[in-house]
Design goal:
Number of helices: 7
Distance between the termini: 33 Å
Structural class: alpha/beta
Radius of gyration: 17 Å
Strand content: 15-25%
Shape: globular
Length: 209
Amino acid sequence: MRTRSAKDTGLNRPRRNLLKAAAAGMFAGMAAPLLQPLHLAHAAEGSLHGKKVLIVFYSHSGNTRALARQLQTLTKGELVELETVQPYPEEYRALTEQAKRELASGFKPPLKTKINNLQAYDVIFVGSPNWWGTVAAPVRTFLSEYDLSGKTVAPFITHEGSALGRSMADIRTLCPQSTVVEGLAVRGSRAASAWEETAAWLRKIGMKE
């Protein structure tokens, strides 16, 4: 699950420090996509052998989105962010409680996002935060509603200590006719600067030379 925001945990800090932290965070968020190592700029082009790549992800705090954008740069894939019809709460406790209820009941929230040409892609990167040990409910909806048979599925997960959890087993259950390769787990606090880690994972799963 996502970590608590600054407004939840930093109420006693001086106002000046909060403003400095906010400004630094905004700059880092804008600059990070521009600061990838130059030798990674075209890292995976020669390894996908003409296969079409789609990167589908759900992000609540922005960490999974940052990782997805790195994958887009490294693979030249198309990027699709999943959005739910009813947005999730911003408040941390309300979010965690809703996610827990959905997992226990098996609820799959309806998606606003529609993908009309999924069959055109060979490799599907699937990104999610780790919520209660597995992928977020919007990702379960996507994997349940779309047929990924015959495709390579590469999961990437952001977390704050629980790593992949049981997300790999759950994805394989939802994609029984897909080739699900070893997933990538990145701490949310490192997601914006995980270029080397992401490139190393692509090499490991055979998608980067």
